[in-house]
Design a protein that fits this description.
Largest sheet: 5 strands, parallel
Distance between the termini: 46 Å
Structural class: alpha/beta
Oligomer: single chain
Number of helices: 19
């Protein structure tokens, strides 16, 4: 047992292993149904998913081939505008209505051709201004064409077999599957199938060539939408790698890593991977609905445990540098985003306010009793607790 984690986190790791075992079986069944011979795991959580998949299906003939798809919202968004032009910017501004010109430039990736003089406004107002200005619209079309060619060259160089098929099966952590949407809009001749840990309600219309499936929860089924936040699971499954910013000569290039190698999440992932042969043996001994039902219950226990958030997990999460170059144009440090200074800034900036409420709102109320949390956050959680009990 790792000294870094403790007994409660080791128990969570075993439940997390059940979730990934469930994913492995689902992917095998889904690949057969779709007639595809490979699965593309999206970075960065895909590094862990792929490693677990290969341990679970130790016999290569038992499952489809596993490939690492090096993509991000940042590296694929501009390419998705290839056919839509400025109208496609609404997909960014629906999620980030306060995004202005600097945030838009950051979200289009780099390098960019020299932009024209920036228009005013933010969000949908900015999008309409770009669409109405011929010079800006032409510049955006040039950006989209360049980025589309770069993504296409990468896919052809690294995933040619998958691209020759009519269907592509991708895997990621979840949220809303924006990267899959980007790829589907950029390459509409392909059907893009996605499997995720969980999917929240979509903020934009879904492309016609997209299908998505959430294991733990799915926006298409309101009865399977649990309360809580995917961020603790994203942290536990993440790899300390830079976000893919774009492609050059068929190779992905990345930004500098947002954070340093994290011993806590690394130890958690090692414990999850160590359990993979045990889950594979369970499936080999009893393949069928009973095993899948037991794994689903363990997966829900993992979700619940992450939402209750042991103090050790919270403290590790506070060291997490969350990559938000797409949309916000910055890297967000969790502790800084929830600090008293951030709260003061939120009084005068709607963008800072949204960020502050997003991160503080993800904390479980039970942490208000933890002395190690610090007076500021305990006080904030106590106010939330009183509000939840109907007090003003």
């Amino acid at each position: 047992m790792s000294a870094v984690l403790g007994a409660d986190m080791h128990a969570l790791a075993r439940d997390a292993s059940a979730l990934l075992a469930w994913m492995c079986v689902d992917l095998q069944m889904r690949s057969r149904e779709l007639g595809v011979d490979r699965v593309l795991f999206m970075t960065r959580e895909g590094l862990l998913f792929k490693a677990y998949f290969e341990r679970f299906w130790a016999a290569p003939a038992a499952a489809p081939a596993a490939e690492l798809l090096r993509v991000s919202r940042l590296s694929t968004f501009a390419a998705s505008l290839h056919d839509q032009g400025a109208a496609g910017l609404d997909r960014l501004f629906t999620q980030y209505p306060q995004a202005g010109w600097p945030q838009l430039l950051a979200s289009l990736g780099e390098p960019l051709p020299a932009p024209p003089s920036p228009p005013g406004g933010a969000g949908p107002v900015l999008g309409r201004a770009i669409g109405a200005d011929p010079a800006l619209a032409a510049w955006l079309a040039d950006v989209a064409a360049r980025k589309h060619a770069e993504v296409a060259a990468y896919l052809q160089a690294q995933h040619a077999d998958a691209m020759r098929a009519q269907r592509v099966l991708v895997v990621d952590i979840g949220w809303r599957g924006t990267i899959q949407d980007n790829l589907a809009l950029a390459f509409p001749q392909l059907q893009w199938e996605g499997v995720y840990v969980g999917l929240y309600p979509y903020m934009n219309p879904q492309p016609a060539n997209v299908r998505k499936h959430g294991l733990l929860f799915d926006s298409s089924n309101a009865d399977r939408m649990p309360g809580g936040n995917l961020m603790p699971i994203e942290y536990l499954f993440h790899q300390a790698l830079g976000t893919v910013a774009g492609y050059r000569g068929g190779e992905a290039h990345t930004l500098a890593a947002a954070g340093e190698e994290d011993a806590f999440s690394a130890a958690f992932q090692a414990a999850v991977l160590e359990d993979a042969p045990h889950r594979a043996a369970e499936w080999a001994g009893q393949p069928g609905d009973a095993t899948l039902a037991a794994w689903r219950q363990a997966s829900l226990a993992f979700w619940s445990g992450c939402q209750q958030m042991p103090l050790a997990l919270f403290q590790a999460l506070c060291r997490y540098a969350h990559e938000e170059t797409f949309g916000l144009g910055q890297v967000v440090n969790m502790a800084a985003a929830m600090s008293p200074r951030a709260a003061l800034r939120s009084l005068v900036s709607s963008r800072e306010r949204a960020l502050f409420l997003q991160y503080v709102g993800a904390l479980p109320l039970a942490l208000r009793h933890e002395a190690g949390l610090g007076w500021w956050l305990r006080g904030w959680l106590q106010l939330r607790h009183l509000r939840s009990r109907g007090r003003t």
